[in-house]
């Protein structure tokens, strides 16, 4: 039996026997708690147990560091993050240490990118130790926890992505989600850490819900953060160091022993971490020769109660194999953090970190302590830059039982601080009025009295911030929230606010500094978190053109709300004269820092991303064309653009589906137009793309027509590519027979594809217009086909992509349907027609509407006498005078007889001009003779084309 805790052990065993009525698990549990405390306190290397973001831990750390003055500090933090600690003096806390890897080697590819963050706040024990070690000569700070590479090495491989799993802080069961964390705060501050895995020093929390619910119920609190503040933080704030250590180890041992069996995998990982840390400390002591009496080991209270065989410097078992790191290349940096980001990631109650910071500030002032802080750090008081020197350390006190007195003594009730509570009540009413609440002095009095009442009901003489918050919500919150913040959020702002950190210029990676330097001509302080408006007159101030180019690249790489254009655009063939931007670069420091992990300049990062995208295993030709367009817009490198274009040709030739055909058609059209307008000839990759695409789509066309999974839009885009690029493809050596054979080999069954095939044949001259018209008339006359006629109409509308000359025919078919179908058929048919056109051809419907506007009369009075052009039948061709060929084609040919003669000769006719028998287009107009008389359908087709 351990001598210092013998009395406590006997007392606990007697209580367990009386409570349980005999031997069982409870006596063993209580005895084990005492053993864990005794073991941790007797260890030769002094163990300092902490809880993350705990003011009590920070206060105890300040007192112990000034008293012990250790020369070596071992800290539970990823060992490869050590170089980042020196940059904390260039930042405003809170910030987070980050390790980032975008290109991974040794992990599943779907895990990329990998990110680990470790938040640091001023009111934390780890920051106090870091500030002491970095600014005190002769003190060495050693991080001993597993590296960030091992964090993911030890992740179970059966999980798809570790970033999408609920982040696991130190010693938290993944199956357990805190009630207050079920709805984390929404906002940009709460998302500063993104999907990174969080690392903190020491998290203490019950391992199963029953114990936590029991503690919350009997403690008369709402959530775990309030229970911890009331029953651990407040009693330990003024406790001596020995009491603090014993209580923290006791709590860590309790939660460790009460962990449910479901946490076997988590327990094994935690124990491996403890073996890892003790192995690293032994290695450092062996190589440095440091005296363990002058060292301090800072770890979570959970790990202080460790029972692994490697625990302690005198452990009998010291072997532990540490696996080598993978070939993943990790990048390190500092990113801004915030109280709400820490709360959201680690499942803490909203406002708990802000309340802890306010508690820390008040305790430091009340206790007269001088906390440690890094010299020259932003957001701290200016102090003397004289380096601290080590004095004579206090001798280590013998282990004595402090738990018996602490556990037996009732909690001290703090006296009511009326001045503090009155200040809170007055300030919350003032803040509520600013945010639209109809609060008054009466509400302040009600909040004051309700706070005291709630504290009394909960067994507290002094209202806590949580009591005050509940009282304010009860007395001020009405039916609705008039502004952006409710009363709960206003209380958090009042009691401490959501402090947001900032990474200083000197601590930024080269890319981020380069961005700020290149945007200096704008004359804005881009490190501020406010949204700033930048006005760029590019004609009057040409020196701002590089800033504009950089802003567009940032727009491409950063989140949409970081750099937002108000006026101006960047597309192929466009140049903005003036631009206006809303810039929130200071709010997105994290994103810019992570860009710095990928390259030295933004252009380098964009080039690497585009190259990686087009060479990805699942890359498509459409994505490659998009990369080509981005390269032209943002990089201006002809060599790199040609490289991406060549890759696009390879991807198009390798594709076995036509799902991206519409996007391919749209992008290649835009790129061809750009090159024709800016360069004397097309690049070689464009020529290769046209020829490869012509052959590729001709090959796949028959299969696409009959494939049920290939939509009408995709087939229409294929035909649009083939018909639209045909002249260009033929000039590069393609054969028109490929297209004719592909169309003739197509035999679709779906109505929309059948209509699309008819239109393609008509465009190729394989189906005369009269035959196409008769087929449509048959469809309208067959009552069995009428219900599916909207599908045919959808195919015809989609055919406007490859054959825009069919627009008059589409108007004709649709007009016939409205004229011939009875109401019993037409009325149920109309909704289906509208929905079909909206879903399958919404961008082509305006073409149809414009053509209808040209066909139908413009006035209501002309409708009664209007005769549809498709209803008038031509006279026999033997009587030239009876041919009705008036219209734009007649006018054009009559006014240019030489051109008409040339066209007639081209087709093998001998042109002969005859005198007009009866002018049909107006007095003095010459009629078209032999050619137009013999071929009236050609004249009408030409008329339809000219109407476009």
TrEMBL record:
InterPro entries: DUF5682. Residues 161-172 have a biased composition (Acidic residues). The lineage of its organism: Bacteria, Bacillati, Actinomycetota, Actinomycetes, Streptosporangiales. This is Uncharacterized protein. It comes from Actinomadura rudentiformis. It comes from the Bacteria. Residues 155-189, 371-397 are annotated as: Disordered. Residues 379-388 have a biased composition (Basic residues).
């Amino acid at each position: 039996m351990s001598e210092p805790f013998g009395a406590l052990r006997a007392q606990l065993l007697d209580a367990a026997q009386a409570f349980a009525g005999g031997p069982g698990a409870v006596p063993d549990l209580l005895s084990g708690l005492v053993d864990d405390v005794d073991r941790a306190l007797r260890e030769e290397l002094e163990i300092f147990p902490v809880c993350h973001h705990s003011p009590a831990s920070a206060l105890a750390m300040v007192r112990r560091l000034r008293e012990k003055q250790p020369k070596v500090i071992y800290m539970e933090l990823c060992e490869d993050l050590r170089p980042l600690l020196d940059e904390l003096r260039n930042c405003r806390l809170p910030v987070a240490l980050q390790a980032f890897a975008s290109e991974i080697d040794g992990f599943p590819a779907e895990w990329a990118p990998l990110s680990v963050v470790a938040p640091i706040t001023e009111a934390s024990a780890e920051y106090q130790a870091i500030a002491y070690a970095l600014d005190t000569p002769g003190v060495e700070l050693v991080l001993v926890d597993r590296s960030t590479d091992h964090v993911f090495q030890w992740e179970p491989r059966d999980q798809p992505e570790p970033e999408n799993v609920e982040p696991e802080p130190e010693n938290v069961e993944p199956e357990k989600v805190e009630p207050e964390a079920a709805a984390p705060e929404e906002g940009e501050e709460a998302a500063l850490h993104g999907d990174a895995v969080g690392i903190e020093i020491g998290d203490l929390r019950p391992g199963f819900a029953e114990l936590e619910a029991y503690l919350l119920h009997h403690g008369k609190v709402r959530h775990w953060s309030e229970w911890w503040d009331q029953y651990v933080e407040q009693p330990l704030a003024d406790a001596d160091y020995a009491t603090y250590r014993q209580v923290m180890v006791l709590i860590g041992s309790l939660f460790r022993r009460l962990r449910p069996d479901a946490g076997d995998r988590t327990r094994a990982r935690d124990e491996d971490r403890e073996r890892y840390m003790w192995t690293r400390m032994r290695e450092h002591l062996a190589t440095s020769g440091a005296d363990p009496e002058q060292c301090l080991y800072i770890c979570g209270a959970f790990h202080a109660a460790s029972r692994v065989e490697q625990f302690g410097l005198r452990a009998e078992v010291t072997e532990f194999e540490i696996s080598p790191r993978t070939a993943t290349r990790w990048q390190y940096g500092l990113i801004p953090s915030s109280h709400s980001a820490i709360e959201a990631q680690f499942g803490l109650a909203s406002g708990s970190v802000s309340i802890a910071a306010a508690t820390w500030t008040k305790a430091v002032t009340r206790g007269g302590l001088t906390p440690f802080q890094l010299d020259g750090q932003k957001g701290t008081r200016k102090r003397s830059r004289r380096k601290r020197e080590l004095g004579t350390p206090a001798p280590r006190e013998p282990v004595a039982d402090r738990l018996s007195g602490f556990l037996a003594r009732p909690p001290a009730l703090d006296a009511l601080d009326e001045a503090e509570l009155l200040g809170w009540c007055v300030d919350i009413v003032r803040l509520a009025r600013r945010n639209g609440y109809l609060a008054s002095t009466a509400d302040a009095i009600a909040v004051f009295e309700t706070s005291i009442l709630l504290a009394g009901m909960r067994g507290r003489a002094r209202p806590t911030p949580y009591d005050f918050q509940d009282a304010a919500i009860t007395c001020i919150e009405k039916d609705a929230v008039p502004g952006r913040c409710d009363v709960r959020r206003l209380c958090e702002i009042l009691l401490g606010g959501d402090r947001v950190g900032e990474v200083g210029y000197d601590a930024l990676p080269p890319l981020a500094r380069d961005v700020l330097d290149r945007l200096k001509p704008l004359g804005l302080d881009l490190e501020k978190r406010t949204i700033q408006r930048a006005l760029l007159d590019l004609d009057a101030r040409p020196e701002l053109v590089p800033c504009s180019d950089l802003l567009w690249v940032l727009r491409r790489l950063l989140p949409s709300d970081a750099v937002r254009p108000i006026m101006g655009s960047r597309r192929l063939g466009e140049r903005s004269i003036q631009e206006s931007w809303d810039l929130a670069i200071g709010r997105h420091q994290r994103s810019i820092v992570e860009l710095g992990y990928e390259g030295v300049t933004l252009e380098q990062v964009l080039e690497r991303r585009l190259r990686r995208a087009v060479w990805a295993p699942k890359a498509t030709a459409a994505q490659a064309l998009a990369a080509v367009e981005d390269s032209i817009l943002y990089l201006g490198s002809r060599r790199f653009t040609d490289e991406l274009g060549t890759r696009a040709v390879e991807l198009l030739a390798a594709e076995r589906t036509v799902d991206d055909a519409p996007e391919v058609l749209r992008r290649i059209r835009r790129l061809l137009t750009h090159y024709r307008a800016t360069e004397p000839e097309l690049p070689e990759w464009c020529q290769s793309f046209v020829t490869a695409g012509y052959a590729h789509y001709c090959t796949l066309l028959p299969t696409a027509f009959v494939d049920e999974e290939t939509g009408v839009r995709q087939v229409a885009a294929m035909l649009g590519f083939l018909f639209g690029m045909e002249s260009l493809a033929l000039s590069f050596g393609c054969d028109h027979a490929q297209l004719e054979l592909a169309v003739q080999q197509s035999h679709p069954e779906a109505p929309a594809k059948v209509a699309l095939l008819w239109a393609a044949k008509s465009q190729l001259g394989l189906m005369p217009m009269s035959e196409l018209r008769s087929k449509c008339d048959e469809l309208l006359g067959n009552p069995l086909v009428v219900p599916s006629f909207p599908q045919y109409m959808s195919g015809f509308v989609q055919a406007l992509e490859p054959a825009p000359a069919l627009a008059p025919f589409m108007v004709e078919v649709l007009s016939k349907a409205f004229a011939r179908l009875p109401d019993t058929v037409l009325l149920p048919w109309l909704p289906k027609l509208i929905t079909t056109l909206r879903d399958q051809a919404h961008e082509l419907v305006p073409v149809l509407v414009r053509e209808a506007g040209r066909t139908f009369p413009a006035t209501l009075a002309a409708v009664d006498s209007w005769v549809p052009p498709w209803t008038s039948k031509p006279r026999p061709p033997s009587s030239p005078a009876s041919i009705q060929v008036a219209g734009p084609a007649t006018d054009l040919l009559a006014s240019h007889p030489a051109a008409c003669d040339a066209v007639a000769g081209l087709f093998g006719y001998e042109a002969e001009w005859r005198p007009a028998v009866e002018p049909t287009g107006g007095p003095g107009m010459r009629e078209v003779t032999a050619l137009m008389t013999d071929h009236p359908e050609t004249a009408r087709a030409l008329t339809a084309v000219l109407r476009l």
